[in-house]
Amino acid sequence: MRYIERITGLYPREKMAKKPARKAGTRKPATARQKAGRKRGRKSGSAALYAASAKELTAFYRSMLMIRRFEEKAGQMYGMGLIGGFCHLYIGQEAVVVGVQDALQPGDQVLTSYRDHGHMLAAGIDPKAVMAELTGRSGGISRGKGGSMHMFSLDHGFYGGHGIVAAQVPIGTGLAFANKYNDSDAVAVTYFGDGAANQGQIFESFNMAKLWSLPVLYVIENNQYAMGTSIDRASGVTELCRRGDSFNIPGRLVDGMNVLEVRAATEEALAHCRTGKGPMILEMKTYRYRGHSMSDPAKYRSRAEVQEMRAEHDPIDQVKRRLLADKIFDEAGLKAIDKEIKDQVTASAEFAQESPEPEAAALYTDILAPEAAPETERG
Ligand SMILES: Cc1ncc(C[n+]2csc(CCOP(=O)(O)OP(=O)(O)O)c2C)c(N)n1
Ligand SMILES: [Mg+2]
């Protein structure tokens, strides 16, 4: 089977088939099939879709579109030399972070890799503060000192932005340990990629998370590539939802291009983690349309492969079709939303260019948290 056939086979076209929008506040009871699937602890192919109200569907659409337009703008600004260093775009993967974030409750923590702009926007961080961080300005969320890969916001429960592949996984597991130790019911949602899934520290984290039944949800964003290496060339076992098998950590395969499937699977997984049952893994099958970073021309895959994913499985188009079919919006209404979001992104780009650069003295601040500063010097 050709590679593209194999991956696209996971995204049946009918997944977002017309379904009447649910009235706000009326959650559909689980079907017998869904209940049976849960009982069996089914490992993959969950087709359960979240029954979103019209309001929720619109919110998903807006959030995904905001990430898409923001990333397009970031790409342009990088091309103009306004953003330095590395810049990894999230275009194509929007449904993952939007679906997961919507299922969280206040106090939950989120950590991810360097491909983090979408996660920050989904966490509710002002696009101006994210864009100004990309341009290294003092109005940035990390005061212009972190850049694309090292953003952080305790206020939003966002624990970074990590440039070392898989470094966030033991940190997320440690946060989950703290949650349990402090009797909090928060879950540490720890994202990582298909390439990171082969890193040794993940397995050490899995072992401890299971041993101590820690409330950590591992979300594997399997976008099929780690830099220029496809998952088939890097992993002996490509079903990453099974990576927890030998630790007895349950895992589930999710269509990460479908925000409703992501939302439903996350809700169930969080309930598992929150009720003392320990860690869980969700493998989100997704796809990035752009290269690994802005400097990657992505010659390791065909144009047709990317085109097919865009045309057949785009997460935003899927929701757009539902909004139109259910007559929640007409074309003019959707255009107005697009314009509103574009204006917001333009304003963030302006802010990111007007905000001053950090003072030279800022090099010496924000290095240690005040309470973490040692009382005595070692040596
Ligand atoms: C420990 C370490 N090794 C190698 C690198 C270089 N590197 C940066 S991203 C990357 C690929 C990771 O791919 P994946 O986990 O699939 O995430 P994606 O970029 O697809 O989101 C590599 C090898 C790094 N940053 N850290
Ligand atoms: Mg990857």
The run of helices and strands is HHHHEHHHEHEEEHEHEHHH
Mean pLDDT: 90
What is the rounded distance between the termini?
Answer: 61 Å
Outline type? globular
Q: What share of residues is helical?
A: 40-55%
Please name the CATH topology: Rossmann fold
Number of structurally distinct domains: 1
CATH level-two architecture: 3-Layer(aba) Sandwich
Low-confidence stretches: 1-5, 11-21, 36-46
Q: How many distinct beta strands?
A: 7
Secondary-structure-derived class: alpha/beta
Main β sheet profile: 5 strands, parallel
- Number of alpha- plus pi-helical segments: 13
The CATH homologous superfamily: Thiamin diphosphate (ThDP)-binding fold, Pyr/PP domains
Q: Strand-residue fraction?
A: 5-15%
Radius of gyration: 21 Å
The CATH class assignment is Alpha Beta
Ligands, deduplicated:
thiamine diphosphate, magnesium ion
Task: Output the strand order for the largest sheet.
Answer: 1-2-3-7-6
Properties at a glance:
Rossmann fold; alpha/beta; 8% strand
Protein topology:
Layout: H1 3-8, H2 32-40, H3 54-79, H4 94-103, E1 109-111, H5 117-122, H6 127-134, H7 168-181, E2 188-193, H8 200-211, E3 216-222, E4 225-226, E5 229-230, H9 231-234, E6 251-255, H10 259-274, E7 280-285, H11 303-313, H12 315-325, H13 331-354
Parallel strand pairs: 1-2, 2-3, 3-7, 6-7
Antiparallel strand pairs: 4-5
This protein binds thiamine diphosphate and magnesium ion (MG).
